[in-house]
Amino acid sequence: MISAGDFRNGVTFEEDGNVLQIVEFQHVKPGKGAAFVRTKTKNVMTGAVLEKTYNPTAKFPTAFIERREMQYLYEDGGLYYFMDTETYEQSPLNASELSDAFKFVKENEMVKVLSYKGKVFGVEAPNFVVLEITETEPGVKGNTATNTLKPAKLETGAEIRVPLFINEGEKIRIDTRTGEYMERA
Hints:
The protein is mainly beta. It is 0% helix and 53% strand. The chain has no helices and 16 strands. Strands 9-8-7-10-11 form a five-stranded antiparallel sheet, with no helix packed on it. A five-stranded antiparallel sheet has the order 14-13-12-15-16, with no helix packed on it. The protein has a four-stranded antiparallel sheet with strand order 2-3-4-5, with no helix packed on it. It is flat and about 60 Å long. The termini are far apart.
């Protein structure tokens, strides 16, 4: 059991049959009245984000989410296939079960498959990946004085914005949590 007063970012708990994860929390102690915990929670099964307040003494059962390291193999007809590297068992997942960050994952890359009581609800991409740029406008010499960005297409098909000095064929490092260019690789 976990009390609302012990909430931290990333904590998962059960409430009304739903598994919720804390995205943001704030302990509020108004000058008049009782203290409370203001939270922004995400339903890990549906992805819905809710804002709710809790009494700090309220208790909830802790939800244990299993994170299994698996290898992404390939996509076929809307199904994405993953393999457990220990048992070599393959699991197909629908596109709806993948996170937004999955667009940065190449074939044969390792990811974490998230499940709760055997039901898979998501795939966690690595925080940083190195990808090659397949399509972008050429950079112009001397055009680096401003912090201007241009669109670029990556080898996975994802599109991001990169600085003007980046050219086709270069490898760049991307933060998959924000989808932003970090640096040349």
